[in-house]
Specification:
seven-stranded parallel β-sheet; alpha/beta; Rossmann fold
Length: 310
């Protein structure tokens, strides 16, 4: 097998292949011939001999350059960066390791809201000792209702890590799936169609949804009104799932509520977005899965894929 690797085009160091990754791949896959490419030009030049590709993106017109190509494997969690129609015999494979990192990010978001950490960071500039201002915001995660909308690889990781803090889990998923062994008697696994019924009791709502027509603005003004006035909303899936104008209005009217958003309908989020002016909205620049070991985890998953029985 000839594997062509082009994973150096990202601006963040954590997302660029390093020498240690190349060494690990060569050691673990001695039967594979590697082409590690440093530029798009080098990548395109290598495609005619590629049996498999590991890359951040791929274009439809590049398929004509790769007559032997059988697999495209990406560190991304979804197909947004691969707007291609693969011909028969070509597999597009996306990665599953992101939840391990993202779960820590989301737990930090939830605790930051519940324990008043984000509010304290805002208040410290104008209040020398804001105990009365913080008191109404302070809650515990133990006993709270944590609803996870989108219970795939990422959603399950988030719920399991948060479970150590004692919330009741309500997990919503579109496709049937088994109840996790670590669920306790008060935890629930429900079809996504029951979302409206669980929102009024939800203290923390985590969205881990892909970008599809069905998920577009799934959290709209009507559903936001079903949430308690102190609820936290956390989106680490795709930005299309949230009606951003409705969320801005909802947050502006509810000082005890909060939103922590890592993804947006358009990225970067525009400077004129009303979300940017809200003290109870934390904006992250699509970094919930970023960590120094991001590509280490991808490399280990890639090795597992290429050594798995056919």
């Amino acid at each position: 097998m000839i594997l062509v690797v082009w994973l150096v085009a990202k601006p963040l160091a954590a997302l660029r292949l390093a020498e240690r990754h190349e060494r690990r791949l060569r050691e673990a896959l001695p039967g594979v011939r590697f082409r590690f490419c440093r530029s798009r030009e080098e990548f395109l030049e290598a495609l005619p001999e590629a049996d498999a590709v590991a890359a951040w993106t791929f274009r439809q017109e590049w398929l004509e350059l790769a007559p032997r190509l059988e697999r495209i494997i990406s560190p991304t969690a979804g197909a947004e960066w691969f707007p291609i129609q693969p011909p028969p015999g070509l597999r597009l494979e996306f990665s599953r390791f992101h939840g391990r990192i993202m779960a820590e990010t989301v737990l930090g978001m939830i605790l930051g809201h519940a324990r008043g950490l984000f509010a304290a960071a805002v208040l410290q500039a104008s209040h020398p000792w804001p105990r009365p201002e913080l008191e109404p915001l302070l809650r515990t995660l133990r006993g709270a209702c944590l609803t996870v909308l989108g219970f795939g690889q990422v959603g399950r990781r988030i719920a399991r890590l948060a479970k150590a803090c004692g919330p009741r889990i309500t997990a919503l998923q579109r496709l049937p799936g088994g109840r996790p062994a670590w669920f306790e008697p008060g935890d629930r696994l429900l079809p996504a169609s029951e979302l409206d019924g669980v929102l009024p009791e939800t203290d923390h709502l985590v969205l881990c949804l892909p970008a599809t027509p069905e998920t577009d603005r799934i959290l709209d003004a009507r559903r936001l009104e079903l949430l308690p006035a102190h609820a936290g909303v956390y989106n680490v899936g795709r930005g299309n799932a949230v009606d951003e104008e409705a969320l801005s209005a909802w947050l502006a009217a509810r000082p005890l509520a909060a939103a922590c958003l890592d993804v947006f309908r358009e990225e970067p989020l525009g400077s004129g977005s009303p979300l940017r002016g809200l003290a109870n909205c934390l904006i992250l620049p699509h970094v919930s899965a970023i960590a120094p070991d991001f590509l280490d985890l991808f490399v280990e998953e890639l090795i597992e894929r290429l050594t798995a029985p056919p």
